[in-house]
Amino acid sequence: MRRNIVAGNWKSNKSFNDADELITDIAEGLREFDTIDVDVIVCPPFPYLELIGDAAEDVEFFVGAQNVSKFEDGAYTGEVSARMLSSMNIDYCIVGHSERRKYFYETNQDVAEKVNRLLAENIAPIVCVGELLEDREAEKHFEVIRSQVEEGLFHLNENDIQRVIIAYEPVWAIGTGKTATKEQAQEIHAFIRNLLAEKYSDDIAQEISILYGGSCNAKNARDLFAQTDVDGGLIGGAALKSEDFIEIAKSF
Ligand code: PEP
User: Is the whole-model pTM more than 0.90?
Assistant: First the structure.
């Protein structure tokens, strides 16, 4: 079901003690406002999932992982399987983040396989798509997003596609302080929703949350989230500061 969502991607940051402090502050902030209109998701590094899960026991937020293996359990040294995540009651998992695509050579095919593993374990994938600066400059951004969405997701049936969250993250905006304008975000979000409507149906497209990510912060979140097809944000840098993250979660 289409929900307002704010998801924090901690990436490869924080010591265990710093993670503990941050989640304590976030939980404190969340306790003080009614999260009925927004699903808040915290995605820490793997070793801290249990710590964050414990904090979610008495405050209303969800826990997500940042990646998952495309393989099942077995002899894959260093990998974390979807089954392991589900055995820890993880609700969400980011897939296909641009940093994974860039540094770990993840392809749309890998994304599709990871999405399948997650859905089989009842974990909602947060699938990232987004163009590079050179794609936008060459006016290829629609083409790039289309192939990421089609190749990563369009093998899913009508039920499964509705269990997925999509995050539009223009790569030129991630960690750069250069946010997409609200018009640029809305244009691509509407484009993605239209792809979903053409492939599935308008009703189904309306059910899918599409998040914006890329230097989203406490100052620009409200404008971005007010766009018709922007259902919230995937937040990197600003998710590492509890006040900013809470402020963003209040921006609907
Ligand atoms: C991200 O990495 O998903 C992200 C959106 O990062 P930032 O908010 O720091 O641009």
Answer: yes
